[in-house]
Amino acid sequence: MLLLHSLCKRFRPDAEPLFSGVSLAIKPGECVAIMGESGVGKSTLLNCIAGLETSDGGRIELEGQRIDMLDDDAWALVRRKRYGFVFQAFHILPHLNLADNVALPLWLLDIDTATARARAQKMLDAVGLGGRALDAPNKLSGGELQRVAIARALVHRPAVVLADEPTGNLDPDRAGEVLALLIDTVREVGAVGILVTHSRLAAAQTDRVLQLRRDGLHSFDVTGA
Ligand SMILES: Nc1ncnc2c1ncn2[C@@H]1O[C@H](COP(=O)(O)OP(=O)(O)OP(=O)(O)O)[C@@H](O)[C@H]1O
C-alpha cells in the first residue's frame, strides 16, 4: 500500500503552496491516473513520491513505513529497489541491446548475471519482444521502445511504478496497447501504479482517475464533458 497523507509542496518558503492536502491510498495491483491543468504540479507530485523533490508537509508511507523523512542515500536505495519509472522519452540506452537494457535495474541491485539475464528475457517475453532480446534499440519503433521501458521498469518487481506521460510520443492505437500492457503488468506484479497523463483515453484505462488541484486530489469523471 502506498499512502500519501496531506502532502504539500512549495518551491519558495514565502510563496503559496503549489499544492497542499494531497492524500491518497493505493493498494497493490491498483493503477491510478492523475490528471490536471498544465503547471498544477503533477510531475512535481510524482517527484515528491519518488523522493526526487522534498515535500513541505504531510507524509508518505510505503508498506506501512514512513519514507518521506529518509536521507538522500536511503531514498536512492528505495528508488532502486522499490520503484520503477516509465517516462515519455523512453530513456533506453542506445549502446546496450534490449536484454541488457531490461536487465540494468537488476545489475544495479547486484543480482547475478544468469538470474538477471533470465528475468530480463522473461520480461521481454511478457511485453511481446522475447525474440528481439539481442537487437539494438535503434531497430525498434517508438511503441516497441516503450514496451522495453515497461519491461525495464518492472523487471525488479517494484512496489511502485511511476509513469509520466508514458504514451505521449505514440500514436493513439499504439498508446492504447502500450498502456494496457503497462496496467496489466502492474497488476500482475502487484505494484502500485501512478500514471500522470493529459489523455482522458489513457486515464480511462486505469482503475481510478483523480484530478490534481491546488487543494488536493479530487475524483474525476473522464467520461464527462
Ligand atoms: N525546481 C523548481 N523550482 C521552481 N518552480 C518549479 C520547479 N519545478 C517546477 N516548478 C514549477 O512548478 C509548477 C508545476 O510544474 P509541474 O511540471 O509539476 O506541472 P505539471 O502539472 O506536471 O505540468 P504539465 O502538465 O505542463 O507537464 C510549474 O509552474 C513549474 O514551473
TrEMBL record:
<keyword id="KW-0067">ATP-binding</keyword>
<keyword id="KW-0547">Nucleotide-binding</keyword>
<dbReference type="GO" id="GO:0005886">
    <property type="term" value="C:plasma membrane"/>
</dbReference>
<keyword id="KW-0813">Transport</keyword>
<dbReference type="GO" id="GO:0016887">
    <property type="term" value="F:ATP hydrolysis activity"/>
</dbReference>
<keyword id="KW-1003">Cell membrane</keyword>
<dbReference type="Pfam" id="PF00005">
    <property type="entry name" value="ABC_tran"/>
</dbReference>
<dbReference type="InterPro" id="IPR003593">
    <property type="entry name" value="AAA+_ATPase"/>
</dbReference>
<keyword id="KW-0472">Membrane</keyword>
<protein>
    <submittedName>
        <fullName>ATP-binding cassette domain-containing protein</fullName>
    </submittedName>
</protein>
<comment type="similarity">
    <text>Belongs to the ABC transporter superfamily.</text>
</comment>
<dbReference type="GO" id="GO:0005524">
    <property type="term" value="F:ATP binding"/>
</dbReference>
<dbReference type="InterPro" id="IPR017871">
    <property type="entry name" value="ABC_transporter-like_CS"/>
</dbReference>
<dbReference type="GO" id="GO:0022857">
    <property type="term" value="F:transmembrane transporter activity"/>
</dbReference>
<feature type="domain" description="ABC transporter">
    <location>
        <begin position="2"/>
        <end position="225"/>
    </location>
</feature>
<dbReference type="InterPro" id="IPR027417">
    <property type="entry name" value="P-loop_NTPase"/>
</dbReference>
<dbReference type="InterPro" id="IPR003439">
    <property type="entry name" value="ABC_transporter-like_ATP-bd"/>
</dbReference>
<dbReference type="InterPro" id="IPR017911">
    <property type="entry name" value="MacB-like_ATP-bd"/>
</dbReference>
<dbReference type="InterPro" id="IPR015854">
    <property type="entry name" value="ABC_transpr_LolD-like"/>
</dbReference>
